């Protein structure tokens, strides 16, 4: 019985330009990628597919890279596309960008930066390498959510980011670290 391999996924940290090609760099979160593979760029803009024409591992060319490795992927097919921090490279169809989700929110204590969260508050969410503002909506009767408490909220992000259920996110409120959120439902 063979183990099922997880699909490739790499958050983009920094992007370099090499002529007409783009080289996003980052640490591979899961799966593996090979020279010649087709990958999908997922982020605030539309999803775009490109081909990996080279893999750079600390200045040397390799044919394959896997989870845990920090690499640069030389891509063909991204000319004129704004590729940057916050985008995710993945196997086609492995992950989608979403701008709405439901999450379980856990607030820090006041001493650690937690503060009251009300419906309509704009929180700054950190999703892998992306930072995006989102408006929270609490269920009726749960407003406001107090420090050191937990609650379920719906979030509408300013722009879509690559998300999946079970993903843990950190968030800031009033420019201070305020707590964590675990995505429970997308859309």
Explained architecture:
There is one protein chain. The radius of gyration is 18 Å and the shape is elongated. The protein is built from no helices and 16 strands. Strands 1, 2, 3, 5, 6, 7, 9 and 10 form an eight-stranded antiparallel β-sheet that branches. 0% of the residues lie in helices and 57% in strands. It has two domains: 9-90, Translation factors (Elongation Factor Tu (Ef-tu), domain 3); 96-186, Translation factors (Elongation Factor Tu (Ef-tu), domain 3, Beta Barrel). Strand 15 and strand 16 (176-186) form a beta hairpin.
Topology:
Elements: E1 9-11, E2 14-18, E3 21-27, E4 32-34, E5 38-42, E6 48-57, E7 60-62, E8 64-66, E9 70-76, E10 88-90, E11 96-107, E12 122-127, E13 130-137, E14 150-163, E15 168-173, E16 176-186
Antiparallel strand pairs: 1-10, 2-3, 3-9, 4-8, 5-6, 5-10, 6-7, 6-9, 11-14, 11-16, 12-13, 12-15, 13-14, 15-16
Brief characterization of the structure:
The chain is an all-beta fold. Helix content is 0%, strand content 57%. It contains no helices and 16 strands.
**Name of the CATH homologous superfamily of the largest domain:** Translation factors
Shape: elongated
Number of domains: 2
Number of helices: 0
Proportion of residues in β-strands: over 45%
Order of helices and strands: EEEEEEEEEEEEEEEE
- Mind describing the biggest β-sheet? 8 strands, antiparallel
- The CATH class of the largest domain turns out to be Mainly Beta
């Amino acid at each position: 019985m063979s183990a099922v391999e997880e699909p490739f996924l790499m958050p983009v940290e920094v992007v370099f330009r090499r002529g007409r090609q783009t080289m996003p760099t980052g640490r591979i979160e899961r799966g593996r990628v090979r020279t010649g593979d087709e990958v999908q760029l997922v982020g605030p803009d539309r999803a775009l597919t490109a081909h990996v024409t080279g893999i750079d591992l600390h200045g040397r060319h390799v044919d394959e890279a896997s989870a845990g490795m920090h690499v640069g992927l030389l891509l063909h097919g991204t000319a004129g596309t704004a590729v940057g921090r916050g985008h995710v490279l993945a196997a086609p169809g492995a992950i989608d960008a979403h701008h709405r989700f439901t999450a379980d929110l856990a607030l820090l204590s006041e001493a650690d930066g937690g503060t009251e969260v009300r419906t309509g508050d704009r929180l700054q969410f950190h999703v892998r390498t992306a930072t995006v503002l989102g408006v929270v909506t609490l269920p009726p009767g749960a407003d406001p959510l107090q420090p050191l408490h937990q609650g379920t909220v719906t979030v509408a992000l300013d722009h879509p980011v690559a998300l999946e259920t079970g993903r843990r996110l950190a968030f800031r409120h009033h420019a201070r670290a305020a707590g964590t959120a675990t995505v429970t439902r997308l859309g």
